[in-house]
Amino acid sequence: MAEALLTLEGVHTHIGQYHILQGVDLTVPRGGLTVLLGRNGAGKTTTLRTIMGLWKPSRGRVTFAGRDIAGLSTPDIARAGIAYVPEAMGIFSDLTVAENMTLAARRGPPDKARLDWIFAFFPALRRFWSQPAGVLSGGQKQMLAIARAVVEPRALILVDEPTKGIAPAIIDNMIGAFAELKREGTTILLVEQNFRFAAALGDTVAVMDDGRVVHRDRMAALAADEAAQTRLLGLTLDAHQ
């Protein structure tokens, strides 16, 4: 297995009076795609938000590229090379697609070659380039959210359920885009319920339950083990497709 780019060690996160993460241990190997699975309420989104500094861990270490980032602000974590695509997408509906992309580019106007690469997977973004992002469909907004995260190369991308409510044709384009990101060396941590998508892309998998990681494996091994799927997730992967 490749060296770890990101590790969480004994991470606890409280939100108000609620103790959501209860000692999360997670390793994300460099250059691969790690899938984070679990039933609703297991703590998957809280894990991503804790990594990104949106919620502060009350205990434990979050180490990225050898540096403890648990105490950093969200902007500093982003500057360190981590991008986040939340389930809510986080786009600016009143701004044009072009303006959304420009805001996401830290080093000035987006690079033309990079935009052409993005348009190859998400051609609707070229078509609506000068239109307000609010006119996009749900699937097109998800394309824009992902495109914003990858408008510049990032070391690590955190993605929360990118295929939720998205048409199969767009999902196929996303598979191509994420596969290409992997080929260029980007590390991805993905929360996902579409197991066809997860199995097509995932290298490693971690399963969460009740605020902890309870199972780690190769994604291919879990995809082939229906008994483990039922034990850990309640349903087999086939039942989720």
TrEMBL record:
Pfam families: ABC_tran. The keyword Metal-binding does not apply. InterPro entries: AAA+_ATPase, ABC_transporter-like_ATP-bd, ABC_transporter-like_CS, BCAA_Transport_ATP-bd_LivF, P-loop_NTPase. SMART domains: AAA. Keywords: Amino-acid transport, ATP-binding, Nucleotide-binding, Transport. The keyword ATP-binding applies. Belongs to the ABC transporter superfamily. This is ABC transporter ATP-binding protein. The lineage of its organism: Bacteria, Pseudomonadati, Pseudomonadota, Alphaproteobacteria, Hyphomicrobiales.
